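Here is a complete protein record:
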Amino acid sequence: MNPGKLFKMPTAVNPSNFEEVMQQAIALELATIPTYLSTYYSINRAQNQDTLYSKLQQQLGAATGNAELDINSLAQELKVDILVYANKAAALIMSVAIEEMLHLALASNVKQAIVSPPDLLGISKSLVFPTQLDGHEPEFPINAAKLSLQQLSTFLQIESPDPFVDPADTPETDNSVEKYKTIGQLYNAIINCIQNNFPGPYAASPQLLPPQKSAPPRPYYSQNSINTVYYDRNHNPVFGSADDSGELIGVTDAATAVAAINEIQHQGEGNTSLDHDTLKFDANNMPIPLPVVNGEVQFKAGDYDDGSKKELSHFDKFLEMYSLGVYYQEKFAKINGLDDFFSYFVYTQESNPKQADYDQYGTQALSLCSQLGNAIFTYILLMIETCYYKDEATQFDVFMYGIHKSMIWLLSGVGNTINSYTYYKNFQAYTAALTFEYFPFENTPGKTPKQQILSLVDQLAAADPDNWSWLTDPKYAGYWPALPDVRLDHTVIPDMPVIPA
Protein backbone atom coordinates (compact mmCIF):
# COMPACT_ATOMS: atom_id res chain seq x y z
CA MET A 1 0.00 0.00 0.00
CA ASN A 2 1.43 3.34 -1.01
CA PRO A 3 1.53 5.91 1.78
CA GLY A 4 -0.98 8.72 1.55
CA LYS A 5 0.38 12.22 1.18
CA LEU A 6 -1.42 14.20 3.86
CA PHE A 7 1.16 16.95 4.14
CA LYS A 8 2.76 18.65 1.16
CA MET A 9 5.68 20.84 2.15
CA PRO A 10 5.46 24.02 0.02
CA THR A 11 8.28 25.31 -2.14
CA ALA A 12 7.93 28.79 -0.64
CA VAL A 13 6.10 30.65 2.13
CA ASN A 14 4.61 34.03 1.27
CA PRO A 15 1.55 36.13 2.12
CA SER A 16 -0.48 34.63 -0.73
CA ASN A 17 -0.15 31.04 0.53
CA PHE A 18 0.37 31.71 4.25
CA GLU A 19 -3.12 30.50 5.18
CA GLU A 20 -2.58 27.22 3.33
CA VAL A 21 0.91 26.77 4.77
CA MET A 22 -0.32 27.23 8.35
CA GLN A 23 -3.14 24.76 7.74
CA GLN A 24 -0.53 22.29 6.52
CA ALA A 25 1.64 22.98 9.56
CA ILE A 26 -1.36 22.24 11.79
CA ALA A 27 -1.96 19.05 9.77
CA LEU A 28 1.63 18.02 10.44
CA GLU A 29 1.28 18.51 14.20
CA LEU A 30 -2.06 16.71 14.24
CA ALA A 31 -0.76 13.73 12.22
CA THR A 32 1.96 12.99 14.78
CA ILE A 33 -0.55 12.53 17.61
CA PRO A 34 -2.21 9.28 16.38
CA THR A 35 1.21 7.98 15.35
CA TYR A 36 2.65 8.48 18.82
CA LEU A 37 -0.49 7.33 20.63
CA SER A 38 -0.67 4.12 18.57
CA THR A 39 2.82 3.26 19.72
CA TYR A 40 2.05 4.26 23.31
CA TYR A 41 -0.96 1.94 23.50
CA SER A 42 1.09 -0.96 22.10
CA ILE A 43 3.13 -1.05 25.32
CA ASN A 44 2.02 -3.27 28.19
CA ARG A 45 2.74 -1.12 31.24
CA ALA A 46 0.89 -3.30 33.75
CA GLN A 47 2.50 -6.72 33.56
CA ASN A 48 2.36 -9.19 36.41
CA GLN A 49 5.91 -9.04 37.71
CA ASP A 50 5.87 -12.55 39.20
CA THR A 51 4.67 -14.03 35.92
CA LEU A 52 7.35 -12.18 33.96
CA TYR A 53 10.05 -13.27 36.40
CA SER A 54 8.92 -16.91 36.18
CA LYS A 55 8.94 -16.80 32.37
CA LEU A 56 12.49 -15.45 32.28
CA GLN A 57 13.62 -17.92 34.93
CA GLN A 58 12.19 -20.86 32.96
CA GLN A 59 13.71 -19.69 29.67
CA LEU A 60 17.13 -19.25 31.23
CA GLY A 61 16.96 -22.59 33.02
CA ALA A 62 15.82 -24.52 29.95
CA ALA A 63 18.49 -23.12 27.62
CA THR A 64 21.80 -24.88 27.23
CA GLY A 65 24.97 -22.99 28.01
CA ASN A 66 23.57 -21.14 31.04
CA ALA A 67 24.79 -23.58 33.71
CA GLU A 68 27.41 -21.17 35.03
CA LEU A 69 24.94 -18.30 35.44
CA ASP A 70 23.04 -17.29 38.57
CA ILE A 71 19.65 -17.89 36.94
CA ASN A 72 17.58 -16.26 39.69
CA SER A 73 19.65 -13.07 39.88
CA LEU A 74 19.82 -12.74 36.11
CA ALA A 75 16.07 -13.26 35.75
CA GLN A 76 15.50 -10.48 38.30
CA GLU A 77 17.91 -8.16 36.46
CA LEU A 78 16.26 -8.81 33.10
CA LYS A 79 12.80 -8.35 34.58
CA VAL A 80 13.78 -4.90 35.84
CA ASP A 81 15.29 -4.10 32.44
CA ILE A 82 11.97 -4.87 30.77
CA LEU A 83 9.72 -3.10 33.26
CA VAL A 84 11.80 0.08 33.50
CA TYR A 85 12.30 0.42 29.75
CA ALA A 86 8.64 -0.31 28.95
CA ASN A 87 7.34 2.24 31.40
CA LYS A 88 9.94 4.86 30.57
CA ALA A 89 9.31 4.49 26.83
CA ALA A 90 5.56 4.77 27.36
CA ALA A 91 5.85 7.81 29.64
CA LEU A 92 8.19 9.65 27.28
CA ILE A 93 6.07 8.88 24.22
CA MET A 94 2.95 10.15 26.01
CA SER A 95 4.84 13.27 27.15
CA VAL A 96 5.65 13.95 23.49
CA ALA A 97 2.03 13.34 22.44
CA ILE A 98 0.81 15.85 25.04
CA GLU A 99 3.33 18.42 23.82
CA GLU A 100 2.17 17.78 20.26
CA MET A 101 -1.30 18.76 21.45
CA LEU A 102 0.33 21.96 22.72
CA HIS A 103 2.02 22.46 19.34
CA LEU A 104 -1.32 21.93 17.61
CA ALA A 105 -2.76 24.74 19.74
CA LEU A 106 0.24 27.03 19.20
CA ALA A 107 0.11 26.62 15.41
CA SER A 108 -3.66 27.13 15.56
CA ASN A 109 -3.17 30.32 17.57
CA VAL A 110 -0.82 31.68 14.89
CA LYS A 111 -3.23 30.84 12.08
CA GLN A 112 -6.19 32.24 14.00
CA ALA A 113 -4.43 35.53 14.81
CA ILE A 114 -3.11 36.22 11.31
CA VAL A 115 -5.55 34.67 8.82
CA SER A 116 -8.37 32.31 9.92
CA PRO A 117 -9.43 29.59 12.40
CA PRO A 118 -7.91 26.10 12.12
CA ASP A 119 -9.86 23.38 10.30
CA LEU A 120 -9.06 20.30 12.37
CA LEU A 121 -11.98 18.13 11.27
CA GLY A 122 -11.05 18.73 7.64
CA ILE A 123 -7.55 17.42 8.36
CA SER A 124 -8.92 14.42 10.24
CA LYS A 125 -11.11 13.45 7.27
CA SER A 126 -7.98 13.23 5.09
CA LEU A 127 -5.70 11.56 7.62
CA VAL A 128 -5.05 7.97 6.53
CA PHE A 129 -2.14 5.83 7.68
CA PRO A 130 0.40 5.11 6.37
CA THR A 131 1.11 8.70 5.41
CA GLN A 132 4.23 10.67 4.60
CA LEU A 133 5.59 14.18 4.42
CA ASP A 134 5.41 14.91 0.71
CA GLY A 135 8.35 17.14 -0.13
CA HIS A 136 10.52 16.17 2.83
CA GLU A 137 13.92 15.00 1.65
CA PRO A 138 14.11 12.09 1.82
CA GLU A 139 10.45 11.07 2.00
CA PHE A 140 9.66 8.30 4.45
CA PRO A 141 6.47 6.45 5.44
CA ILE A 142 4.78 7.26 8.75
CA ASN A 143 2.83 4.38 10.29
CA ALA A 144 0.42 4.02 13.16
CA ALA A 145 2.30 1.04 14.57
CA LYS A 146 3.57 -0.75 17.64
CA LEU A 147 6.79 0.11 19.45
CA SER A 148 9.88 -1.15 17.62
CA LEU A 149 13.28 0.13 16.59
CA GLN A 150 11.85 0.82 13.14
CA GLN A 151 9.01 2.89 14.59
CA LEU A 152 11.44 4.84 16.76
CA SER A 153 13.53 5.44 13.63
CA THR A 154 10.47 7.02 12.03
CA PHE A 155 9.94 9.22 15.08
CA LEU A 156 13.56 10.37 14.87
CA GLN A 157 13.15 11.30 11.22
CA ILE A 158 10.00 13.30 11.99
CA GLU A 159 11.74 15.30 14.73
CA SER A 160 15.26 15.50 13.29
CA PRO A 161 16.85 18.92 14.00
CA ASP A 162 19.14 18.66 10.97
CA PRO A 163 18.79 17.54 7.35
CA PHE A 164 19.61 13.87 7.09
CA VAL A 165 20.58 11.73 4.12
CA ASP A 166 19.11 8.34 3.30
CA PRO A 167 22.07 6.11 2.31
CA ALA A 168 19.90 4.52 -0.40
CA ASP A 169 19.28 7.87 -2.11
CA THR A 170 21.30 9.18 -5.02
CA PRO A 171 22.69 12.72 -4.77
CA GLU A 172 20.17 15.46 -5.59
CA THR A 173 20.75 16.79 -9.10
CA ASP A 174 17.83 19.21 -9.49
CA ASN A 175 18.36 22.29 -7.35
CA SER A 176 16.09 24.54 -9.38
CA VAL A 177 13.26 24.44 -6.83
CA GLU A 178 13.67 25.38 -3.18
CA LYS A 179 12.69 22.56 -0.84
CA TYR A 180 12.68 22.19 2.92
CA LYS A 181 14.63 19.13 4.00
CA THR A 182 13.28 19.24 7.56
CA ILE A 183 10.17 20.44 9.32
CA GLY A 184 12.32 22.92 11.24
CA GLN A 185 13.45 24.56 8.00
CA LEU A 186 9.81 24.99 6.98
CA TYR A 187 9.06 26.64 10.33
CA ASN A 188 12.02 28.97 9.81
CA ALA A 189 10.48 30.03 6.50
CA ILE A 190 7.16 30.66 8.29
CA ILE A 191 8.97 32.84 10.83
CA ASN A 192 10.61 34.85 8.05
CA CYS A 193 7.26 35.36 6.34
CA ILE A 194 5.67 36.57 9.59
CA GLN A 195 8.47 38.98 10.38
CA ASN A 196 8.53 40.44 6.86
CA ASN A 197 4.80 40.59 6.15
CA PHE A 198 2.66 40.37 9.30
CA PRO A 199 4.10 42.73 11.94
CA GLY A 200 0.81 43.23 13.79
CA PRO A 201 -0.74 44.05 16.13
CA TYR A 202 -3.39 41.51 15.15
CA ALA A 203 -7.12 41.85 15.69
CA ALA A 204 -8.39 40.18 18.87
CA SER A 205 -9.66 36.64 18.29
CA PRO A 206 -10.48 33.57 20.44
CA GLN A 207 -7.32 31.59 21.17
CA LEU A 208 -6.16 29.04 23.72
CA LEU A 209 -4.21 31.16 26.20
CA PRO A 210 -1.82 30.62 29.12
CA PRO A 211 -3.15 31.07 32.67
CA GLN A 212 -4.29 34.63 33.26
CA LYS A 213 -3.48 36.67 36.36
CA SER A 214 -7.17 36.90 37.19
CA ALA A 215 -8.49 34.73 40.01
CA PRO A 216 -9.01 31.88 39.65
CA PRO A 217 -6.45 31.20 36.89
CA ARG A 218 -7.73 29.20 33.94
CA PRO A 219 -5.02 26.74 32.85
CA TYR A 220 -5.69 24.98 29.54
CA TYR A 221 -2.48 23.00 29.40
CA SER A 222 -0.88 20.57 31.83
CA GLN A 223 2.40 19.04 30.71
CA ASN A 224 2.10 15.91 32.85
CA SER A 225 -0.53 13.34 33.75
CA ILE A 226 -0.67 9.90 35.30
CA ASN A 227 0.43 8.56 31.90
CA THR A 228 3.69 10.55 31.75
CA VAL A 229 5.23 9.26 34.98
CA TYR A 230 7.51 6.23 35.22
CA TYR A 231 9.68 4.67 37.92
CA ASP A 232 13.45 4.28 37.55
CA ARG A 233 15.46 1.25 38.68
CA ASN A 234 15.42 2.56 42.26
CA HIS A 235 11.64 2.94 42.08
CA ASN A 236 11.79 6.72 42.16
CA PRO A 237 9.00 8.46 40.22
CA VAL A 238 10.11 10.51 37.20
CA PHE A 239 7.87 12.75 35.08
CA GLY A 240 8.34 12.88 31.33
CA SER A 241 8.01 16.67 31.11
CA ALA A 242 9.62 19.47 33.11
CA ASP A 243 7.59 22.32 34.58
CA ASP A 244 9.51 24.95 32.62
CA SER A 245 9.51 23.24 29.21
CA GLY A 246 6.75 25.32 27.60
CA GLU A 247 3.26 26.80 27.78
CA LEU A 248 0.51 28.20 25.61
CA ILE A 249 1.27 31.58 24.03
CA GLY A 250 -1.35 34.13 23.03
CA VAL A 251 -0.52 35.48 19.57
CA THR A 252 -1.05 39.25 19.24
CA ASP A 253 1.82 40.41 16.99
CA ALA A 254 4.87 39.18 15.09
CA ALA A 255 6.93 38.76 18.26
CA THR A 256 4.41 36.46 19.94
CA ALA A 257 3.77 34.56 16.71
CA VAL A 258 7.49 33.91 16.36
CA ALA A 259 7.67 32.89 20.03
CA ALA A 260 4.93 30.32 19.43
CA ILE A 261 6.72 28.83 16.42
CA ASN A 262 10.05 28.85 18.27
CA GLU A 263 8.49 26.86 21.12
CA ILE A 264 7.22 24.24 18.67
CA GLN A 265 10.70 23.91 17.17
CA HIS A 266 12.57 23.98 20.47
CA GLN A 267 10.45 21.30 22.13
CA GLY A 268 10.42 19.06 19.07
CA GLU A 269 13.84 19.31 17.49
CA GLY A 270 15.80 20.83 20.34
CA ASN A 271 18.08 23.83 20.26
CA THR A 272 20.07 23.55 17.03
CA SER A 273 22.25 26.54 17.97
CA LEU A 274 23.96 24.50 20.69
CA ASP A 275 26.01 21.34 20.74
CA HIS A 276 23.48 18.65 19.93
CA ASP A 277 23.29 15.08 18.66
CA THR A 278 22.42 14.48 15.00
CA LEU A 279 20.70 11.68 13.12
CA LYS A 280 23.13 9.37 11.33
CA PHE A 281 22.36 6.08 9.61
CA ASP A 282 24.29 2.83 9.29
CA ALA A 283 24.65 0.65 6.20
CA ASN A 284 21.28 -0.98 6.96
CA ASN A 285 19.52 2.42 6.90
CA MET A 286 18.93 2.37 10.64
CA PRO A 287 19.92 5.22 13.00
CA ILE A 288 23.25 4.87 14.76
CA PRO A 289 22.51 4.76 18.54
CA LEU A 290 24.25 6.85 21.13
CA PRO A 291 26.57 5.09 23.58
CA VAL A 292 25.05 3.65 26.76
CA VAL A 293 27.18 3.75 29.92
CA ASN A 294 25.90 2.10 33.12
CA GLY A 295 22.40 2.04 31.64
CA GLU A 296 22.43 5.77 30.77
CA VAL A 297 22.48 7.26 27.28
CA GLN A 298 25.28 9.79 26.79
CA PHE A 299 23.90 13.07 25.38
CA LYS A 300 25.53 16.29 24.27
CA ALA A 301 24.92 19.59 26.04
CA GLY A 302 22.36 21.02 23.64
CA ASP A 303 19.77 18.27 23.75
CA TYR A 304 17.45 19.73 26.39
CA ASP A 305 14.34 21.83 25.78
CA ASP A 306 13.97 23.48 29.20
CA GLY A 307 16.03 25.93 31.19
CA SER A 308 16.71 23.57 34.08
CA LYS A 309 18.01 20.87 31.68
CA LYS A 310 15.68 18.25 33.09
CA GLU A 311 13.76 17.48 29.90
CA LEU A 312 15.07 16.34 26.55
CA SER A 313 13.61 17.55 23.26
CA HIS A 314 11.28 15.20 21.37
CA PHE A 315 14.12 14.18 19.06
CA ASP A 316 16.35 13.26 21.98
CA LYS A 317 13.64 11.48 23.94
CA PHE A 318 13.22 9.23 20.94
CA LEU A 319 16.99 8.94 20.48
CA GLU A 320 17.23 7.84 24.12
CA MET A 321 14.52 5.21 23.66
CA TYR A 322 16.10 4.04 20.41
CA SER A 323 19.61 3.81 21.90
CA LEU A 324 18.40 1.96 24.99
CA GLY A 325 16.24 -0.30 22.78
CA VAL A 326 19.28 -1.28 20.71
CA TYR A 327 21.30 -1.79 23.90
CA TYR A 328 18.73 -4.09 25.53
CA GLN A 329 17.91 -5.95 22.33
CA GLU A 330 21.60 -6.79 21.92
CA LYS A 331 21.89 -7.73 25.59
CA PHE A 332 18.95 -10.16 25.39
CA ALA A 333 20.20 -11.61 22.08
CA LYS A 334 23.49 -12.60 23.69
CA ILE A 335 21.80 -14.72 26.39
CA ASN A 336 20.70 -18.21 25.47
CA GLY A 337 17.01 -19.01 25.46
CA LEU A 338 15.54 -15.50 25.57
CA ASP A 339 12.96 -14.01 23.22
CA ASP A 340 13.38 -10.73 21.38
CA PHE A 341 13.51 -7.93 23.94
CA PHE A 342 10.47 -6.02 22.65
CA SER A 343 8.26 -9.14 22.55
CA TYR A 344 8.12 -9.22 26.35
CA PHE A 345 6.08 -6.01 26.63
CA VAL A 346 4.78 -5.00 23.18
CA TYR A 347 1.43 -6.23 21.89
CA THR A 348 1.27 -7.86 18.45
CA GLN A 349 -0.54 -4.95 16.84
CA GLU A 350 -0.96 -4.75 13.08
CA SER A 351 0.50 -1.63 11.49
CA ASN A 352 -2.16 0.88 10.39
CA PRO A 353 -5.23 -1.10 11.52
CA LYS A 354 -8.58 -0.19 9.99
CA GLN A 355 -12.15 -0.10 11.26
CA ALA A 356 -13.19 -2.10 8.19
CA ASP A 357 -10.96 -5.00 9.29
CA TYR A 358 -12.57 -5.06 12.72
CA ASP A 359 -16.00 -5.04 11.10
CA GLN A 360 -14.99 -7.99 8.91
CA TYR A 361 -12.73 -10.06 11.15
CA GLY A 362 -13.61 -9.01 14.69
CA THR A 363 -16.50 -9.31 17.07
CA GLN A 364 -19.34 -6.84 17.48
CA ALA A 365 -17.72 -5.61 20.70
CA LEU A 366 -14.40 -4.96 18.94
CA SER A 367 -16.16 -3.06 16.16
CA LEU A 368 -18.05 -0.93 18.68
CA CYS A 369 -14.92 -0.37 20.76
CA SER A 370 -13.00 0.90 17.74
CA GLN A 371 -15.91 3.13 16.73
CA LEU A 372 -15.98 4.59 20.24
CA GLY A 373 -12.24 5.30 20.13
CA ASN A 374 -12.60 7.02 16.76
CA ALA A 375 -15.60 9.00 17.99
CA ILE A 376 -13.71 10.23 21.07
CA PHE A 377 -10.66 11.29 19.05
CA THR A 378 -12.80 13.08 16.45
CA TYR A 379 -14.77 14.75 19.25
CA ILE A 380 -11.53 15.98 20.85
CA LEU A 381 -10.66 17.69 17.56
CA LEU A 382 -14.16 19.17 17.32
CA MET A 383 -13.84 20.55 20.86
CA ILE A 384 -10.42 22.08 20.14
CA GLU A 385 -11.71 23.61 16.91
CA THR A 386 -14.72 25.02 18.77
CA CYS A 387 -12.42 26.84 21.20
CA TYR A 388 -11.42 29.13 18.32
CA TYR A 389 -15.02 30.33 18.00
CA LYS A 390 -15.88 30.87 21.68
CA ASP A 391 -15.01 33.22 24.54
CA GLU A 392 -12.65 32.35 27.38
CA ALA A 393 -15.32 31.12 29.80
CA THR A 394 -16.77 28.68 27.27
CA GLN A 395 -13.27 27.63 26.22
CA PHE A 396 -12.42 26.73 29.80
CA ASP A 397 -15.51 24.54 30.16
CA VAL A 398 -14.91 22.83 26.84
CA PHE A 399 -11.19 22.34 27.35
CA MET A 400 -10.99 21.32 30.99
CA TYR A 401 -14.19 19.28 31.21
CA GLY A 402 -13.97 17.92 27.69
CA ILE A 403 -10.59 17.76 26.00
CA HIS A 404 -8.50 17.08 29.10
CA LYS A 405 -10.83 14.40 30.51
CA SER A 406 -11.28 12.83 27.08
CA MET A 407 -7.55 12.51 26.46
CA ILE A 408 -6.49 11.36 29.91
CA TRP A 409 -9.40 9.15 30.94
CA LEU A 410 -11.81 8.30 28.14
CA LEU A 411 -9.46 7.73 25.21
CA SER A 412 -6.93 6.00 27.47
CA GLY A 413 -9.66 3.80 28.90
CA VAL A 414 -10.65 2.63 25.44
CA GLY A 415 -7.04 2.41 24.20
CA ASN A 416 -5.99 0.28 27.16
CA THR A 417 -9.00 -2.05 26.86
CA ILE A 418 -9.20 -2.64 23.11
CA ASN A 419 -6.00 -4.69 23.37
CA SER A 420 -8.00 -7.39 25.16
CA TYR A 421 -9.43 -8.32 21.75
CA THR A 422 -7.74 -10.53 19.16
CA TYR A 423 -8.70 -10.80 15.50
CA TYR A 424 -7.40 -13.01 12.70
CA LYS A 425 -6.45 -11.67 9.29
CA ASN A 426 -4.59 -13.53 6.54
CA PHE A 427 -4.09 -16.47 8.91
CA GLN A 428 -2.34 -14.30 11.48
CA ALA A 429 -3.51 -13.25 14.93
CA TYR A 430 -3.32 -9.59 15.91
CA THR A 431 -3.99 -7.66 19.08
CA ALA A 432 -6.57 -4.97 18.36
CA ALA A 433 -5.61 -1.30 18.62
CA LEU A 434 -7.19 2.10 18.11
CA THR A 435 -7.38 3.08 14.42
CA PHE A 436 -7.67 6.90 14.83
CA GLU A 437 -9.96 7.22 11.83
CA TYR A 438 -12.38 10.08 11.31
CA PHE A 439 -15.76 9.30 12.87
CA PRO A 440 -18.63 10.62 10.69
CA PHE A 441 -20.99 12.09 13.26
CA GLU A 442 -24.52 12.39 11.94
CA ASN A 443 -25.68 15.99 11.70
CA THR A 444 -29.37 15.42 12.40
CA PRO A 445 -31.73 16.59 15.18
CA GLY A 446 -31.65 14.28 18.17
CA LYS A 447 -28.31 12.80 17.14
CA THR A 448 -25.70 15.25 18.36
CA PRO A 449 -22.07 14.06 18.50
CA LYS A 450 -22.30 13.69 22.27
CA GLN A 451 -25.50 11.67 22.03
CA GLN A 452 -23.90 9.40 19.46
CA ILE A 453 -20.94 8.82 21.79
CA LEU A 454 -23.27 7.97 24.68
CA SER A 455 -25.14 5.56 22.40
CA LEU A 456 -21.88 3.77 21.54
CA VAL A 457 -21.06 3.53 25.25
CA ASP A 458 -24.42 1.87 25.96
CA GLN A 459 -24.06 -0.52 23.02
CA LEU A 460 -20.54 -1.53 24.02
CA ALA A 461 -21.48 -2.11 27.68
CA ALA A 462 -24.32 -4.35 26.52
CA ALA A 463 -22.22 -6.23 23.94
CA ASP A 464 -19.33 -7.09 26.30
CA PRO A 465 -20.09 -6.39 29.97
CA ASP A 466 -17.08 -8.43 31.16
CA ASN A 467 -14.53 -6.11 29.52
CA TRP A 468 -16.49 -2.90 29.85
CA SER A 469 -17.93 -3.03 33.35
CA TRP A 470 -15.99 0.17 34.11
CA LEU A 471 -18.28 2.03 31.71
CA THR A 472 -21.08 1.68 34.23
CA ASP A 473 -18.90 1.86 37.35
CA PRO A 474 -20.10 4.89 39.39
CA LYS A 475 -16.47 6.01 39.71
CA TYR A 476 -16.16 6.52 35.94
CA ALA A 477 -19.66 6.46 34.49
CA GLY A 478 -20.19 10.14 35.22
CA TYR A 479 -17.40 11.14 32.86
CA TRP A 480 -19.45 10.28 29.77
CA PRO A 481 -22.57 12.36 30.40
CA ALA A 482 -20.34 15.13 31.78
CA LEU A 483 -18.77 15.68 28.36
CA PRO A 484 -19.52 19.16 26.96
CA ASP A 485 -22.32 19.12 24.40
CA VAL A 486 -20.54 20.52 21.35
CA ARG A 487 -22.32 20.56 18.01
CA LEU A 488 -20.79 20.30 14.55
CA ASP A 489 -21.54 24.00 13.97
CA HIS A 490 -19.42 24.84 17.08
CA THR A 491 -22.48 25.56 19.20
CA VAL A 492 -21.91 24.65 22.85
CA ILE A 493 -24.94 23.71 24.93
CA PRO A 494 -24.57 24.99 28.54
CA ASP A 495 -25.54 23.43 31.87
CA MET A 496 -23.21 20.44 31.78
CA PRO A 497 -23.50 17.88 34.58
CA VAL A 498 -20.86 18.08 37.29
CA ILE A 499 -18.14 15.44 37.10
CA PRO A 500 -18.09 13.33 40.29
CA ALA A 501 -15.01 13.65 42.47
Q: What stands out?
A: Residues 353-501 form one domain. The chain has two domains: 4-352, 353-501.
